[in-house]
């Protein structure tokens, strides 16, 4: 096995996916060739450095989900993911509306029954 | 911005038909023989995807929460630019929302998703290669050598001392720059195999390439990165 053949097997050698026979040939060449041993060390360092990138996690920004929903809302001309308006950024406007209607009803009933004149709508 | 790639359709009347049950004995035998077995989706995953087909907003949010960082990370490693990566990753999830009916459940959902992400990233690389440079982008790794005082992109790493932190940040920049010098198909393979540490089978499913081709391109990519590092650091 020459330098070129040995080095063409470095990837599989480092991954541990060479057959036993080829691995033995590469090992035999490495034992006799300092140039290829140096190359292999550099190759291993490169693969190791690439692997360390995984530890440095790149996270999507916090606004990621909101931005996507906004894009879908815009591109679908408002058919999907309509933004929900919220009071103080917490309470959905639908709840505020419902609460207001209930409060008005309660007030109306209270006023009707608590009328000082005692006048009630005429019965049949 | 216009809605490209066809209109968004209303939810279909019924979700995709349930796939037939595969004999567990046959699956076990195939596994024992080292053969590839068809992927069986979990009930939770199926329910989540059914809700997504119905255009359920919460299901979509769940999908983005589950896979957002993974997709963003893959694209960032391929492009080396946070702003571009964010833009492309958004497009990926919009594509998922538009085309979820075409997912047949023959592979893992994550595989399908990463395939879309890889294709979008490759297209963006081609697009950026055609586009003339418009000023220095502080996040673009190709600009690193001309911008010595730029702030480094936020990274979350288990690093203890400031020296180690600095060294890790420099290594990251350097590796990112080396990856950015590869052709797009080689970038993808390096990121999937060496950064994301995926198996060759997963890479085959994502790229659609045979294992032999993946291995030979990956070897060329690793050698190219090593040579680049030799030229620029050693």
SSE topology:
The complex is a heterodimer of chains A (124) and B (234).
Chain A: H1 3-8, H2 10-15, H3 20-32, H4 34-52, H5 64-75, E1 86-87, E2 91-92, H6 93-113
Antiparallel strand pairs in A: 1-2
Chain B: H1 24-32, H2 43-53, H3 57-79, H4 82-99, H5 109-130, H6 162-180, H7 184-195, H8 200-207, H9 211-232
Essential attributes:
heterodimer; A: 124 residues; mainly alpha; B: 234 residues; Rna Polymerase Sigma Factor, Chain: A; Arc Repressor Mutant, subunit A
What would you note in describing this structure?
The complex is a heterodimer of chains A (124) and B (234). By secondary structure, chain A is mainly alpha-helical. Chain A is built from six helices and two strands. Chain A has a two-stranded antiparallel sheet with strand order 1-2. In chain A, a hairpin with a 3-residue loop joins strand 1 (86-87) and strand 2. In chain A, helix 3 (20-32) packs across helix 4. Chain B is mainly alpha-helical and 234 residues long. Chain B has helices spanning 24-32, 43-53, 57-79, 82-99, 109-130, 162-180, 184-195, 200-207, 211-232. Mean pLDDT of chain B is 80; it is low at 4-21 and 142-158. The interface between A and B is large, with 37 and 53 residues.
């Amino acid at each position: 096995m020459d330098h070129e053949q040995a080095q063409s097997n470095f990837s599989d050698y480092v991954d541990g996916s060479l057959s036993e026979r080829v691995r033995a040939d590469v090992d035999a060449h490495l034992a006799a060739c300092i140039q290829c041993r140096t190359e292999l060390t550099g190759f291993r360092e490169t693969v190791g450095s690439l692997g360390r990138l995984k530890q440095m996690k790149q996270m999507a920004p916090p606004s990621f989900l909101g931005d996507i929903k906004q894009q879908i809302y815009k591109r679908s001309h408002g058919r999907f993911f309509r933004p929900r308006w919220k009071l103080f950024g917490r309470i959905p406007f639908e709840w505020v509306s419902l609460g207001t209607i209930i409060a008005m009803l309660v007030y109306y009933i209270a006023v009707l029954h608590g009328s000082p004149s005692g006048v009630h709508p005429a019965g049949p | 911005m216009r809605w490209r790639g066809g209109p968004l359709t209303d939810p279909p009347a019924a979700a995709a038909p349930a796939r037939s049950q595969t004999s567990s004995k046959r699956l076990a035998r195939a596994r024992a023989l080292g053969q590839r077995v068809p992927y069986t989706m979990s009930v939770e995953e199926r329910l989540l995807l059914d809700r997504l087909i119905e255009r359920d907003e919460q299901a979509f949010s769940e999908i983005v929460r589950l896979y957002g960082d993974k997709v963003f990370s893959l694209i960032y490693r391929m492009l080396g630019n946070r702003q571009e990566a964010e833009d492309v990753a958004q497009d990926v999830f919009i594509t998922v929302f538009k085309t979820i009916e075409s997912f047949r459940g023959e592979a893992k959902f994550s595989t399908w998703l990463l395939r879309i992400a890889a294709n979008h990233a490759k297209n963006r690389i081609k697009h950026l290669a055609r586009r003339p440079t418009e000023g220095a982008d502080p996040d673009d790794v190709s600009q690193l050598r001309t911008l010595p005082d730029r702030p480094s992109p936020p990274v979350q790493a288990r690093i203890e001392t400031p020296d180690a932190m600095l060294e890790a940040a420099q290594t990251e920049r350097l590796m990112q720059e080396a990856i950015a010098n590869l052709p797009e198909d080689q970038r993808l393979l390096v990121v999937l195999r060496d950064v994301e540490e995926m198996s060759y089978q997963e890479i085959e499913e994502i790229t659609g390439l045979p294992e032999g081709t993946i291995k030979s391109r990956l070897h060329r990519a690793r050698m190219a990165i090593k040579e680049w590092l030799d030229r620029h650091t050693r």
